[in-house]
Amino acid sequence: MTTETLSPCPILIDNEWSEPQTAETASVFNPSTGEVIAHVPMCGADIVDAAVESCARAARDWAETPPIDRARVLFRYKMLLEEHFEEISRMITREHGKTITEARGDLRRGVEVVEYACGAPELLKGESLENIARGIDCVTYRQPVGICAGICPYNFPALVPMWMFPLALACGNTFILKPSEKVPLTGVRLIELLVQAGLPPGVLNVVHGGKECVDALLKHPKISAISFVGSSPVARYIFETGTHHNKRVQAAGGAKNFVFVLGDAEMDKAVPGMIDGAFGCAGQRCMAASTAVVVGDAQKKFLNPLAEAAQAIRVGATDRDPQALMGAVITREHRDRIVGIVEKGMQEGADLLVDGREVRVADAPDGFYLGPTIVDHVRDEMEICATETFGPVLNVMRFDNLHDALESANRQAFGNGACIFTTSGKAAREFAHNVKAGMVGINVGVPAPLAYFPFSGWDYSFFGDLHVQGHEGVQFYTRTKVVTSRWFQPGEGDIWHKD
């Protein structure tokens, strides 16, 4: 087995890259091989403060920069992202473990947010009304909130950071990016290209780290807004701590997404939709199809072809095997956690329809692999029903009718996504109207919205008021100023005026 070359993992302050000498570092792995590929510095409050002060120095000039000029930086950035698209995609595969096709999708969806943010002059327009009273007019302006920070997860090394900083910058804010310490290299490369596109010094700075770094961001008095994506317990902590320190917070959490299959569904569409939803990115996404809700006759028609399709998925080292359809999970500890959840489900009475625990990849024996796993006869009261597995594990729940199935799904704490496969418009309408989830798919396995719609999680899947992406993203990164004006003729309204 070849030893991989260690990659640098610097911070950025004032457009200067450096590798700080921190007391602690964390290892970054190639999940396909299990090898260490970088050491990430675990920054403390001192480095965070230096990044904040850099943002503060740049804030006024960037806020006064015309929106069209900010957009031009993003246009140049978009072109650089396209030029380096394959390079970045392979970087994602190396440090995350997803397939090259999935990595390209990760980056493409991020680039779409940049494209959306390039519309800043249109997105930032306010409203106006003439003569709200005689001779009095009213207008609204969208102004930046100030210094913003983004705290990112590992599962989408390109998309999630680009959910955050392009819109924040387009709206005139300065920004501090903290990539996940598990996948920091992609984030560093993204920002190298942004600097190359002409972003002025201090407008965006990069720090790395764990809880100490996060807490410094949450509590710093000069930071006005925090964007976060991660697990729900941490999202709640981010929201409560950030708002306690008078910050605007959007904190997207985890999920347990239910995908319904009715007896009238087109099974040749439902099976691949479920397979992609459950096992794409090795199940490490908050929009993963976590639970197949099989209703009525679908129990006879759907489960056997589903199991066959899952067993046919080739698991392999995605950085070297172009035929691999699924890669490793992010760390050995995460793999062991997933296996523990599956085994707890079996102890509580569930059955294994497909067992991926013993999968082996011959040319990468030390990679963090777990094959597609399908757990059948899951019930409401089981821990596996309510726990976000965040891996290639699909639960199966069986119901006789749609009403009972909906009641079960709506009892869950999460509210990210829910889907249905059916040819019945009536059933689809009933489902879309009644299911308690912010993103709904009809004959779609993963209902993640594009850049111009909000990523609209509900309940335990989101903490805050304004979601990422779309107009809600613009609203989050701006605050509204209302100006009411009246202009007098000479002497008009002047009680001291004398002829």
Short description:
This protein is 38% helix and 22% strand.
Provide structural commentary:
There is one protein chain. This protein has helices at 45-64, 67-83, 85-96, 100-117, 120-123, 159-170, 184-196, 211-219, 232-244, 267-279, 298-301, 303-311, 332-347, 383-386, 402-410, 425-434, 470-476; strands spanning 11-13, 16-18, 25-30, 35-41, 128-133, 136-144, 147-151, 174-178, 204-206, 223-229, 248-252, 257-261, 289-295, 351-354, 373-376, 393-399, 414-415, 417-421, 439-442, 458-459, 462-463, 478-486. The protein has 499 residues and is of the alpha/beta class. It has two domains: 11-253 and 461-483, Aldehyde Dehydrogenase, Chain A, domain 1 (3-Layer(aba) Sandwich), CATH 3.40.605; 257-442, Aldehyde Dehydrogenase, Chain A, domain 2 (3-Layer(aba) Sandwich). The chain has a seven-stranded mixed β-sheet with strand order 14-15-16-13-12-18-19, with helices on both faces. Helix 2 packs antiparallel against helix 4. The longest helix is centred in the first third of the chain and has 20 residues, at 45-64. It is globular and about 85 Å long.
